[in-house]
Amino acid sequence: MKKSSFLLIRASTFIAHAAKIWESNTNSGLDQNLKYFIVDKLQSISDRLTSGKIVPPVTVGSNQGDRFQVLAVSNSERIIKLRGSQTDGRLMIMEGEILVGEGHPHHIHHREDEYFHVLVGKIEFYIGEETIRGTTGTWIFASRYIKHSYRNVNST
């Protein structure tokens, strides 16, 4: 079977003014303690991501990374090339291969955006109401809060 390969880059970014919006929203209906807890957590995350902390370089070879199965089928292997713990929570990069007709079901991320890069083959992406056919070299952006999925559409 003909496989398609892709690179997934997940970037975790938080808008600094989110905490201010929560703090100023007096009609949220939330318990004050819970509201202050959420504001504190948002501010803490924002501070960490915008701290200017320098992250040491990381090198991962072409056959290196943490391998794992994602789907209940063989050949659905993913390789984590770079973990959030290696980038102070700023970025995660994963490489994967999927067989013809296979893919990842609809899902939504609430904390991070995703960037896909089709390395080899044809992958169809469903992002919100839009269908995008990615071929070798294509970059696709999927925003957080938007339902998305993808599948290998190569012919056998």
TrEMBL record:
Pfam families in the record: Cupin_2 (PF07883)
Q: Any idea what this protein is called?
A: Cupin type-2 domain-containing protein
Q: Which Gene3D superfamilies match?
A: Jelly Rolls
Q: Known InterPro entries for this protein?
A: Cupin_2, QDO-like, RmlC-like_jellyroll, RmlC_Cupin_sf
Q: What SUPFAM superfamilies does the record tag this protein with? A: RmlC-like cupins
Q: Where is the signal peptide?
A: none
Give the species: Rotaria magnacalcarata
Task: Specify the domain of life of the species encoding this protein.
Answer: Eukaryota
* Domain Cupin type-2 per the UniProt entry, residue ranges: 97-153
